[in-house]
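Exam revision sheet. Question 4 asks you to relate a sequence to its structure. Input first:
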Amino acid sequence: MSEQRTTASEPISVALTEPDMRHTTAADNGADHSLPDLAAQQSTTVYKLYGDLAIYSGTAHPELAGKIAQYLGVPLGGADVFRFANTNTFVRLHQSVRGKDVFLIQPTSPPTNDNLMELLIFIDTLRRDSAGRITAVVPYYGYGRTDKKDQPRVPITARLVADMVATAGADRFLTIDLHAGQLQGFFSIPTDELPARHLFYDYFAAQKFDRDRTVVASPDIGSVRRSRDLAERLGLPLAIIEKRRSKDGDETTMYNVIGNVKAKDVIIADDEIDTAGTLTDAARFLREAGAERLIAAATHPILSKPATKRISKSDISQLIVTDTVPISEKKRTRIGDRLHVISVAPLLGDVIRRIHEGRSVGVLFNE
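Answer key, structure tokens:
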């Protein structure tokens, strides 16, 4: 029987005044990246809808949970997570969460099934201890790519997982950059999908690049909206790669580049890097079309085998990602200095605070 334990301490309540929401996110290269300042910084009264704020972490990404708790000034709630010899998962809380406003941090990244079951069991544990409200904070939503019947006799697993989270007892769902925005409609509980694009805006805005010779490229039609938003915000032109994927998802064929990339520095934008086949194929295709410096930006660095090998052998000079999922030291070493990680902890911390205090989340993004 193996056991993983988080720090045990009693959560504390948050202040009931409007805080200064300006914050920075530190990338591994030491640069700071800020979300847009709020229009007004007036002190207002905030009414808590539930009990004290409590932050808990599963075993999928305790490092991110610790950063979020530190940002909020709230200690992580203590819990033991047991995995028995028969691989069954068991969760035990160190203290009562009765009446508290609980946020559980647990991305469903690989091993996806283990982390998903742990998420569901942890939610059930909190519900049975009479938590006032449970928000599942899932920075990366596994099974999000199985969101439609694109061929006969296949499941829509993204909908199934959404139903399971609600049935387990979650009252809200908080995530970052779903594979497709319409996945929000699969949930029967209130859902907040946070865009990571502001973090990438700030990162690239701080870089010194020639706007006349830089282009944002979408690696496929499905990523056009994300790439277009980045290009529009940075004031850069957009290029699109036309590709087709095999039914098993293992092979892609690229046919054409829509837009001019010859003698240009190209930023390839996507939501997720899994095996890096699409990314490295796009980089090679763009190089053949005359592109010079190649930079990749993606929210979720899943980096399944053989992603790191492909990236290390590619012409990609920089790989910009966030920490929605953990990146092992072995993968970091394999990719090397070209890897830059932007933390989503301040973003999630600000949103968690606003949800807890019953204030608008859209204000953070000028929405």
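Marking note for examiners. The chain has nine helices and 17 strands.
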